Amino acid sequence: MLEFVLSTIFWTLAIYGLFEVIKNIIYISRFTKFNSDGIYVIIAVKNQEEKIEGFLRSILFKILYGREDYFSSYAERSGGLMNFHVLTLFPDMIEAGLHTSVTGRALKNGYIHLSAVNIRDYSKDKHKHVDDYPYGGGAGMVMQPEPIYLAYEDVTQNMEKKPRVVYVTPQGSVFNQSMAEEFSKEEDLIFLCGHYEGVDERILEEIVTDYVSIGDYVLTGGELPAMVMIDAVSRLVPGVLNNEESAEFESFHDNLLEHPQYTRPVEFRGRKVPDVLLSGH
Ligand code: 6GU
Questions:
Q1: 116-163 pLDDT per residue, tens
Q2: What residue spans of 67-127 are helical by DSSP H?
Q3: What's the 101 CA to ligand 1 centre distance in angstroms?
Q4: Residue nearest ligand 1's atom 11 by CA
Q5: CB contact set of 41 (below 8 Å; sequence gap of 6+)
Q6: What is the pLDDT of residues 244-256, one digit of tens each?
Q7: Which of 29, 193, 199, 230 lies in the 20 to 30 Å Cα band around 95?
Q8: What is the Cα–Cα distance from 225 to 253, expressed in whole angstroms?
Q9: How far apart (Å, rounded) are the C-alpha atoms in residues 107 and 99?
Q10: Whole-prediction pTM value?
Q11: C-beta separation of 13 from 61 below 8 A
């Protein structure tokens, strides 16, 4: 579909450009004369260069378009596309955070999908409760297994294989780049965000495949950790980063970015950009 649209745009531009060039040649030849010295004079060449330039630009576009790797991200897209599902009590938080910046653009362009599912919608309780007191006593409430299971069932009903389910918990293994790479190979990834004092153990045993933390500190809920992980995984999905951003990613891996960066102005509050960086300009 996209190929077709791009192709149509190209041919329209090219035919239009060609038409303009022919028109201009006729135009120029009509208004071209030899003056009294026998010198060829073009009388009216308004906008000619611009039109020819437009034509050449569309030809260049076609050449680039024809190169296999130029739009390869589109080809990889169907394979690379990732669906993130977040089971949470605060879906708005997830939606708002991820529909911003690079992940926001990726969602809009369809490179990644996101569904933030409100566990509360699956409560059978008339007050929509999703938690209860812990057996054996203790402080705080525990999230009940049933609403989480119903949300999980809903999310997974059309999936061909059992997906990976990440329970975000400060007791899990600490998330790192190689985990992000591993997760980015999945087609579907489910995050379960806990709240209160925890989640009934039986739902974890039933559906969870990975217990993951984002560091050694305690947060109020799993939403921010889930967003952190989705961000890190998304940027590894083909098409999510644009060419410039990808180049940056490459150099990060090559440790090329381990020196300080500078941009304009040359001097900021008495601090100058190192001379060695200015010499090339
Ligand atoms: Cl995954 N959850 C919570 N609640 N706190 C955390 C965490 C996760 N990772 C670090 N702190």
A1: 999 999 999 999 999 999 999 999 999 999 999 999 999 999 999 999
A2: 72-80, 91-98, 101-108
A3: 23
A4: 218
A5: 32, 33, 34, 35
A6: 888 666 656 655 5
A7: 199
A8: 23
A9: 7
A10: 0.71
A11: yes
